[in-house]
Amino acid sequence: MLAIGNKTFKSxxxxxxxxxxxxxxxxxxxxxxxTEILTFAVRRMDIFDKSEPNLLEELDISNYSxxxxxxxxxxxxxxxxxxxxxxASGLCDMIKVEAIGCQKTLLPDPxxxxxxxxxxxxxxFTVLTYTxxxxxxxxxxxxxxxxxxxxGASPIGSGQGIVNPLNLQFIIEQxxxxxxxxxxxxxxxxxxYAMELGADGVLLNTAVSGxxxxxxxxxxxxxxxxxxxxxxxxxxxxxxxYAVSSSPASGMID
Length: 254
Known about the structure:
The chain is α/β, with parallel strands linked by helices. Helices cover 36% and strands 16% of the residues. Helix 1 packs parallel to helix 8 (214-234) and helix 4 runs parallel beside helix 5 (165-174). The protein is globular and about 75 Å long.
């Protein structure tokens, strides 16, 4: 089970709700993924105006925990304001904190991210913080009390997969809160790799919504997260420089 704050989940796959070709495909992809957590950008929808198109309107959201995010925020002040807006809607007390510091790479601003996370923790939010794969920053965020750290595998929406597995492994090894690999996942292989490194979960959007067949990719991601976690728990064999026979050497017929 994945525990975040006072909530527990069977699924370790978190899914975004944006950029799907249509509502029906979104609904089916979410269903086959068996995710329990859906994330969405508060700034990209009017959650108060019922007449406005809503990416979540085709889903029975009572079956999910919603994870609003502060995507689009450039500093802590904006991130906190967006989080308060989501909370005021009564959707959820969980929030994914994002404060982007570079519009070209969409990498987070570490100072504004930290500031926003601390403020929202003081206000009683369950805080999941999106960050770079900076090992020290991840530790400092945990020390401040965030409920999960979410290091990016690579730039948001790039599909490059895990470009720095060593740093992710360092973050995972030292963390006492869940580590959710977020951003840059491109295929089921990337998701399985993240889980084999010991990540507690994976959050993705574009890899599914932008696939040629989002529904099939959603199912592939579900299976990849499951198999990657099982592989991690099973413990892989050590790598060896030379071949080792898989058959016993003793008792052979001459």
